Amino acid sequence: xxxxxxxxxxxxxxxxxxxxxxxxxxxxxxxxxxxxxxxxxxxxxxxxxxxxxxxxxxxxxxxxxxxxxxxxxxxxxxxxxxxxxxxxxxxxxxxxxxxxxxxxxxxxxxxxxxxxxxxxxxxxxxxxxxxxxxxxxxxxxxxxxxxxxxxxxxxxxxxxxxxxxxxxxxxxxxxxxxxxxxxxxxxxxxxxxxxxxxxxxxxxxxxxxxxxxxxxxxxxxxxxxxxxxxxxxxxxxxxxxxxxxxxxxxxxxxxxxxxxxxxxxxxxxxxxxxxxxxxxxxxxxxxxxxxxxxxxxxxxxxxxxxxxxxxxxxxxxxxxxxxxxxxxxxxxxxxxxxxxxxxxxxxxxxxxxxxxxxxxxxxxxxxxxxxxxxxxxxxxxxxxxxxxxxxxxxxxxxxxxxxxxxxxxxxxxxxxxxxxxxxxxxxxxxxxxxxxxxxxxxxxxxxxxxxxxxxxxxxxxxxxxxxxxxxxxxxxxxxxxxxxxxxxxxxxxxxxxxxxxxxxxxxxxxxxxxxxxxxxxxxxxxxxxxxxxxxxxxxxxxxxxxxxxxxxxxxxxxxxxxxxxxxxxxxxxxxxxxxxxxxxxxxxxxxxxxxxxxxxxxxxxxxxxxxxxxxxxxxxxxxxxxxxxxxxxxxxxxxxxxxxxxxxxxxxxxxxxxxxxxxxxxxxxxxxxxxxxxxxxxxxxxxxxxxxxxxxxxxxxxxxxxxxxxxxxxxxxxxxxxxxxxxxxxxxxxxxxxxxxxxxx
Length: 745
Hints:
Blueprint: E1 4-6, H1 10-17, E2 23-27, H2 39-52, E3 59-63, H3 66-70, E4 79-83, E5 90-91, H4 101-111, E6 117-118, H5 128-133, E7 138-143, H6 153-166, H7 172-182, E8 212-216, E9 229-235, H8 253-265, E10 279-284, E11 292-298, H9 302-308, H10 312-324, H11 354-357, E12 369-374, H12 375-384, E13 396-401, E14 406-409, H13 418-429, E15 453-456, H14 461-465, E16 470-476, H15 487-496, E17 502-508, E18 525-529, E19 538-539, H16 548-558, H17 574-699, H18 705-710, H19 728-744
Parallel strand pairs: 1-3, 2-3, 6-12, 7-12, 15-17, 16-17
Antiparallel strand pairs: 2-4, 4-5, 7-13, 8-9, 9-11, 10-11, 13-14, 16-18, 18-19
Helix pairs in contact: 2-4, 6-7, 9-10
């Protein structure tokens, strides 16, 4: 509704510059004319920005006061200023780029600096979230957003957190904007930590006031078998110091992360220097040869941990839960899943200081990209990321790290505000992150509880697997093709073993997350959790086939019963002994019946095996016979193929010869036909000549006898010598005959 924001005062200028959206300011003097040069172009650029992105990711403002314009380095009327929080702010270069609405918008879009980004998935298939998650760890903040509201206090607090988080060089302009966002001076928070527990001796005060922090050792550390709480202090000298109460001044979490890292590396050299239940030791820093740390470790009971805070009940449970299972395998009260990542401080909120948080994005290799989503429109995404569906206030924060395959959520019981958000980001950025990875599981089990195989989910893992009797757990997934083939084996195993002391369970790891220490690297996988020794779980050998006899041997080998408790002073009564004997006899008879069934099944399988082997031997003999016949037929086929090739070659040769003979005969036939034609014509000519000659002879018969006697006539067809000349009258006659013949033809 307002493409241009009028900025008349310094307060409103600070409001404009401290906004999380990038801002473009234009300075125009309206004293000379109602429309100063360049104003309509600047207004058109604001409209052009709304046309390209109606959500208004780039804000445009106008300054008319020259003194106010000098604060943002604008001197000449018509100048345009692009504000950037952490990089150098820019002035539109009118000498290089043409002063047009399109160029102003492109210049602002290309050089803008994004502090927070709104994500608005359109509801269909989209790679919007995937493309943003590929850039690195992402902080998603779901907040209710009203675009018509005059102010957004929660967004102002988030903007303040983002400015402090990215203020690496402690820029004075950013500090001034932060002071404007706070409106008042930052409040001084008193320590929320309680006093020292009763019963522990009060140590002497530390003159150097070293920074200390209380940490809970994870269960997998070797020292945690005897001590589960340590206080780490930074010490500049080599003398052992005793930390004071828990409210001792604390150092930055980066220093404590380095101390914790060095403590884990030097844990083997830890030695006892104080009597009682507290152990103290000095150890050299792994990063600096001139820095020492002091660690004092002690055992904190469940009752004392309850005084320190309800949040530590879950993290203390791994060190205490297994010891409580040494007495009984019955289901205890509900508790969280033990987690090796639970090493957070007892009072994380006591270590929140703005000096440690300022510029944190440049001091860690897990820099966060901050995104905002409207919870009124996209709360479904928040629910899928772990937000409660029945939340009264739709505010939710989560960190998703695709590279580490994990994501963390801010405790829904805590309000989304500046302090909690800074603490959440700090705990994620620390080297040994105290955040607990959020686990997502399926809503309900596939099988009810009365079935032989218990279906385990993320919520029931602790109750079923870690607090019950001996448990054999099968890890499977819906896409695993080999896993369904094992169902009948586990059903038979569940029928053989007593249900009151043994549980056969399975879990779909494609739908249920577990802590990393309980995950497997291949499917299917079988883990056995023995009673009273849950920390000594055993993996079924990968090279051993998963069959019923092998599973029975595996379970019996690793489920040795615990030693019987010492007998009480009161001897057992006869009725008790008799009932125990009857119970044992019942177990023995049950096992004998099962053994007889197994033997009957084994004998039936052996008979079936013999029949199958006989059929296999007969099939092998038939196979050999058929193979020999096949080889003989192949040889005969080869000979026939060779003979066929020879006959084919001979056939082609004879065919060529016959074609040649036929061609010659055809030529002879053609020549004979031509000769016959010529012979016929010759005969006709000869007969014609003979008739003519006879006619001439008859015509010349009355000639004088002297001439007749002087020249006798030649007989017809008599040969004539070459060079002889016929009589003159004969030549004339022949000439006349030829002319007559030609005329006749």
